[in-house]
Amino acid sequence: MKASAIAPANIALVKYWGKRDEELILPFNGSISVTLDKLFAHTTVEFDERYKEDILILNGKRVEQSSKDYQEYIGNFLRKFRERFGKTPKVKIESVTNFPTGAGLASSAAGFAALATAINEALGLNLDKKELSKLARLGSGSATRSIYGGFVEWLKGERNDGEDSYAIQIAPPEHWKELRMILCITSKEEKKIKSRAGMAQTVRTSPMYKCWLESAEKDLEDVRAGILSKDLELVGKVAEHNCLKMFATMLTTKPPIIYWNETSIRLIHSILEWRDEGIKCYFTMDAGPQVKVICLEKDEEKIKERLKEIEGVEDIIVTSPGDGAKVTEKHLF
Ligand code: PMV
Question: Average pLDDT, stretch 106-113?
Fold first, then answer.
């Protein structure tokens, strides 16, 4: 009852922000993302009677069961998993990521997609990708999308039991190989407000939340069409506007949520200036200060050189559309 999996992070072009059901992690709106080819979580699980309690080791450090992080994320996920699939022996989970966690780089997406995939294999559940995406969803909303590679949509669903809220692939990674998502790391510190708490606070207190939902369907339609026709301008413009609308809801919560730092703002201004010069580049951001530049392979080098010159940029990672979660024979313990 031991298995391992590797799962990628993903970055949303049309964002998920706000839950209609916090227990089942059901979103108010659908979302679309690109699965990245360079950021991964690698996870090993072992269910065994010899473990007296569930154990989590994250990037080499034991996460104590008494900690808030454990309870809110893994503890909650394992409880829901067992309610759904029946009692299991205690499990040891070890996970490593090749990028900073809790900093707006979709570590929970990669982590829970890897965990769901490894559990499916270890217990021989034989879940298909649709069911796997629902299982990953119980850990973190964005993880629903990391099961698939390429361009992925998480359908919001209508049902109260969440059975129609899962991910589908819009197109495989080969469909638009030239697309680039350049990640500009502006801080590796863990954010103070996690996306889970941030979105709940937004739904409760932002007067803008209603407006956010009103344009969600149109953004999904445009980005879906833009991906299928490989129209960077359409995808870029809508993704950028969608991100700013999400930030408008965050800024107007009480108390306000401001994930940006000085470097994020500097990057946003630069990207807008470069676009005025004729370089096709667009930005998106998530629940953290990192800026992601959307562009094509042909402009990658030029943009990278310019990004390096910007004060405060700590690291630049160029990513392309990549594959989804998969089982691996390489165990971490
Ligand atoms: O599922 P979470 O808790 O990782 O929330 C993801 C929230 C955003 O990254 C801001 C948007 C998204 O759709 O990935």
Answer: 91
Does residue 169 sit in the same domain as residue 28? yes
Residue 159: strand, helix, or coil:
coil
Query: Residue 97, by phi and psi: left (phi above 0), alpha (psi -120 to 50) or beta?
Result: beta
Q: Which domain holds residue 247?
A: 179-319
Q: Which CATH number belongs to the domain containing residue 51 in this structure?
A: 3.30.230.10
Q: How much distance in Å is there from the Cα of 169 to the middle of ligand 1?
A: 18
Domain count, the chain: 2
Ligand 1 contacts CB of residue 133 (under 6 A)? no
Which of 54, 44, 65 shows the shortest CA–CA distance to 87? 54
Kindly report, residue by residue over 150-166, the tens digit of the pLDDT: 999 999 999 999 999 99
Instruction: Estimate to the nearest angstrom the gap between the alpha carbon of 113 and the chain centroid.
Output: 10
Residues 151 and 22 placed together within one structural domain of the fold: yes
Closest atom of ligand 1 to CA, residue 143: 1
CATH of the domain at 241: 3.30.70.890
- Of the residues 174, 204, 230, which one is the last residue of a structural domain? 174
pLDDT in tens, 241-280: 999 999 999 999 999 999 999 999 999 999 999 999 999 9
Residue nearest to atom 6 of ligand 1 (CA): 142
- pLDDT for residue 190 is more than 90: no
Question: Is 123's C-beta closer than 6 angstroms to any atom of ligand 1?
Answer: no
Q: 312 CA to middle of ligand 1, Å? A: 24
Choose one of 174, 206, 235: the last residue of a domain.
174
Query: Which residues, 6 or more positions from 180, have their beta carbon under 8 angstroms from its beta carbon?
Result: 293, 294, 295, 296, 297, 300, 318, 319, 320
